[in-house]
Design a protein that fits this description.
Rossmann fold; alpha/beta; about 260 residues; 2 domains; elongated; 5-stranded parallel beta sheet; 10 helices; about 50% helix
Length: about 260
């Protein structure tokens, strides 16, 4: 009669090797601690399996978030915790905090931040963009003029469609400093194509230092202005920034100028 050999006992080394081959790097690194905890706490099979998988899942989510923040090009984000809303009498704190919940992304709506330079428009836009990243939404921050120059340069090497997708594909795009430079006819066309492609499909945050009545001066013609602006402001939330600039010189030397 053939004797049945007892099954080999799994070893930590084998578990480590399998985790490595399956690219479960977080699980591999935490395996010793997880096994020691299981020996002491004697969890159920379900709880132990869940703890193993949650370790890897959490690490992957954190890596995904890090990659998303890097790709977003947001840079340094000050946030709104220390933002002086009292200095912005027309800016309702509850409205800004609600936007951080990112419901506007589900509704494919835009946000327009309007006001003179130095009032915190970009800071608020970045805070909202960061919140979108933390939610797992693809996000891209760009200076409007740099985006248009990038699209224009893509014509030279035949990557125009790829460049256009770079600004139309993300769930959220922040167009900073719209209107700081006037658009020629070609640049206006690029901007219209981006705005038109994103209309009703993704959300766009725009920061501009002048009100809508002056936006026509950025464009070569009123028709191009209307076609672009109408799509930007359609169902958008408009944040008006007023008051004194946050920016002040560090030092002042000499007599004041007349």
């Amino acid at each position: 009669m053939k004797r049945h050999e007892p099954p080999d006992r799994p070893s930590p080394d084998e578990l480590m090797r399998m985790a490595e081959e399956l690219d479960l790097t977080a699980l591999r690194d935490a395996l010793g601690h997880l096994l020691a905890h299981a020996e002491q706490a004697s969890p159920s099979y379900t709880d132990f399996a869940l703890r193993l998988l949650r370790t890897e899942w959490t690490a992957r989510q954190e890596r995904k978030l890090t990659r998303g923040l890097k790709r977003s090009r947001i840079g340094t984000v000050e946030g709104i915790d220390a933002f002086d809303f009292a200095a912005r009498p027309q800016l309702e704190p509850r409205v800004v905090k609600e936007l951080l919940n990112c419901r506007f992304l589900d509704e494919k709506r835009n946000i327009i931040c309007v006001g003179r330079p130095g009032l915190g428009k970009t800071r608020i836009a970045k805070a909202i963009a960061q919140a979108a990243c933390l939610r797992g939404c693809s996000t891209l921050f760009t200076i409007t003029s740099e985006m248009l120059e990038d699209i224009h340069a893509s014509l030279a090497d035949g990557t125009f469609k790829r460049a256009l997708r770079r600004y139309t594909k993300p769930a959220l795009v922040v167009l900073d400093e719209l209107g700081y430079e006037a658009f020629d006819r070609q640049m206006a066309t690029y901007l219209f194509r981006v705005v038109s492609a994103r209309h009703g499909v993704g959300s766009t945050i725009v920061t501009a230092n002048t009100g809508f009545s002056k936006w026509a001066s950025f464009f070569p013609s009123e028709a191009e202005s209307i076609a672009t602006v109408d799509r930007l402001v359609d169902r958008a939330t408009v944040l008006r920034f007023t008051g004194k600039s946050f920016r002040n010189p560090k030092e002042v030397h000499g007599a004041p100028l007349d």
